[in-house]
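can u pls check wat happens w/ zinc ion
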Amino acid sequence: MFDTHELGRRPGAMQRLSRSVEAPADLGVEVIGVPAGATVELDLRLESVVEGVLVTGTARAPLAGECVRCLEPLEQELEVDFQEMFSYPDADSRLRQAEPEEDTEEETFFVEDGLFDLEPVLRDAVVLALPLRPVCREDCPGLCSECGARLAEEPDHQHHDAVDIRWAALQGLAGTNQDGEKDDVSGPEPGADEKQEK
Ligand SMILES: [Zn+2]
Ligand SMILES: [Zn+2]
């Protein structure tokens, strides 16, 4: 909860504040998120406007999750910007009388007794900013599709009896642009070695 009493209700007033808060539980999605209790650093700018308080801010927090390719745990830093209007309940009732409520997807947030709750706003901003497919590193080779071995630990890993089949499959795919994962299991491309030797 943040207090707006110091800011006051005079339109145009502005206040900056920084605060560290503990991350609530479930701040994230299944594969990656901010660990519960981790420190979230908030830099906020509160602006008093006629109908409420406009809050603009940046949140920084550690992320913990799992690489979607090799399933190793990974850690990242998240930085996300957000902006939200917290309306005064009385200002909002005037608005509602003016235009009857429609089924908008916009959620309305309120300042109540001079306080506003940033958590739902922070949660939405963080979840939107999370990587959809977090990887431990951009070129993570993932797991062997045959046996599940971690290819990062065994660069030369291959199954000899399966190589020919795999090359045939890759040639069949030539021209179709895959997401990159198929290429990852095949090791260096032919030609990559020649370049290195020069
Ligand atoms: Zn990985
Ligand atoms: Zn294998």
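DSSP finds five helices and nine strands in the chain.
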